[in-house]
């Protein structure tokens, strides 16, 4: 049984290898915090022109558009063709599963109306089909580390009545390191595997895509392994036919781009596992939405060095008794969708009014997961807080740990709570 708490383009000709690698390969690696935030639920949709677009990275499975790096037209076999080189991920991907034109599988169109070839990012030579068929694309156009597709489509409105601009690719994104697998080397990506585990995806982001890369010695692996195990637990739900089914508890599927603020991306990744990633004493820790057992440490009067502030319940303006979760639904062409709201009738009666809030989950692709996370979020909005300055003897009350608090407040009380922030002078 789970330990988780039940909380109820314009043509770019003669694009040489140096230009590709120095322009596309490291494009906007430096983050610009003044840019407005993108809608991460929809930023990957559609085709965009120009190699000055920021790189995108996909975790798990997602349906994405891409950036047109080169385009050409050609007449062959009495047909006119449009040819494109489309960058679909700024790092190697695990697989290209399907291609869609106007929300229709490419394989549903006539077989002689299209052709394509994938360079998955681990390639070491230029795409051979593009070199042989596409004007201006040569053996020097390798695109090291960049997943891209050469695709040619018949320029015929009778074949593609809705045009070809609405072209999207269903991909399994980057591979990530799993510290639970002894055969995987954290420094050798050829040993890594593709995973939708929300904790492993977050670990990968922390290591490589935050404001700074994080060295291995600052990652306490026992914390991350425990959290990854919780994320992989099967949780039951009732499907649309009324049958009991299961799915992994916490998964991550979605795309971010390099101009997104690291703090915003990290916050969205944390929401996929209802937890928190935090840094303390130079170490990066993680806690997921789970019950980790009874506390083993108690804060008493001797640990406190100042005034204690206790708020037993959240203020009314901060509480919620109804939560609407927005997620990306694969059954609706990977468009942003509202999950059925989570409504706590008991809390509505207690609050004497409906208090509604919403939560955005751009890395969630399951309606049942979205509702489960919304339910946890609802409970979190109602939690009380305690603020207390502690002596250095209380360093064991680290951020993220569950503790007992035993302090005299009129009469002696003994409660435990999750310590969110501790400031030690």
Automatic annotation (TrEMBL):
Record-annotated Tip attachment protein J domain positions: 261-395
Matching InterPro entries: J_dom
Protein name: Tip attachment protein J domain-containing protein
Organism: Pseudoalteromonas rubra
């Amino acid at each position: 049984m789970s330990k988780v708490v039940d909380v109820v383009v314009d043509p770019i000709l003669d694009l040489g290898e140096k230009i590709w690698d120095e322009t596309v390969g490291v494009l906007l690696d430096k983050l610009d915090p003044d840019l407005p935030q993108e809608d991460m639920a929809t930023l990957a949709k559609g085709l965009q022109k120009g190699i000055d677009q920021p790189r995108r990275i996909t975790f798990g499975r997602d349906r994405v558009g891409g950036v047109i790096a080169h385009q050409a037209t050609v007449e062959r076999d009495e047909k006119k063709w449009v040819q494109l080189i489309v960058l679909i991920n700024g790092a190697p991907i695990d697989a290209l599963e399907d291609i869609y034109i106007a929300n229709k599988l490419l394989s549903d169109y006539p077989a002689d109306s299209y052709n394509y070839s994938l360079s998955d990012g681990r390639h070491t030579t230029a795409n051979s089909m593009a070199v042989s068929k596409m004007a201006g694309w040569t053996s020097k156009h390798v695109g090291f580390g960049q997943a891209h597709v050469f695709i040619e489509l018949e320029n015929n409105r009778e074949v593609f009545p809705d045009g070809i601009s609405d072209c999207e690719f269903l991909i399994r994104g980057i591979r990530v390191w799993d510290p639970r697998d002894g055969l995987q080397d954290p420094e050798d990506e050829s040993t890594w595997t593709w995973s939708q585990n929300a904790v492993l995806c977050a670990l990968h982001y922390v290591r490589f895509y935050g404001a700074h890369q994080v060295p291995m010695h600052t990652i306490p692996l026992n914390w991350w392994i425990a959290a990854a195990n919780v994320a992989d637990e099967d949780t039951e739900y009732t499907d649309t036919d009324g049958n009991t089914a299961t799915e992994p508890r916490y998964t991550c599927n979605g795309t971010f781009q390099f101009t997104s603020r690291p703090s915003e991306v990290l916050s969205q990744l944390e929401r996929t596992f209802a937890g928190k990633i935090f840094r303390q004493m130079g170490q990066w820790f993680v806690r997921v939405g789970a019950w980790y057992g009874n506390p083993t440490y108690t804060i008493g009067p001797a640990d406190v060095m100042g005034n204690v502030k206790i708020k037993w319940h959240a203020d009314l303006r901060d509480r919620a008794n109804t939560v609407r979760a927005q997620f990306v639904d694969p059954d609706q062409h990977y468009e942003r969708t509202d999950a059925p709201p989570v409504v706590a009738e008991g809390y509505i009666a207690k609050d004497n009014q409906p208090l509604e809030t919403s939560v955005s989950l751009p890395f969630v692709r399951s309606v049942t997961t979205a509702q489960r996370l919304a339910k946890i979020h609802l409970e979190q909005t109602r939690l009380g807080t305690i603020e207390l300055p502690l002596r250095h003897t209380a360093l064991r009350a680290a951020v993220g740990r569950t503790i007992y608090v035993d302090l005299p407040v009129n009469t002696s009380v003994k409660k435990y709570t999750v310590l969110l922030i501790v400031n030690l002078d």
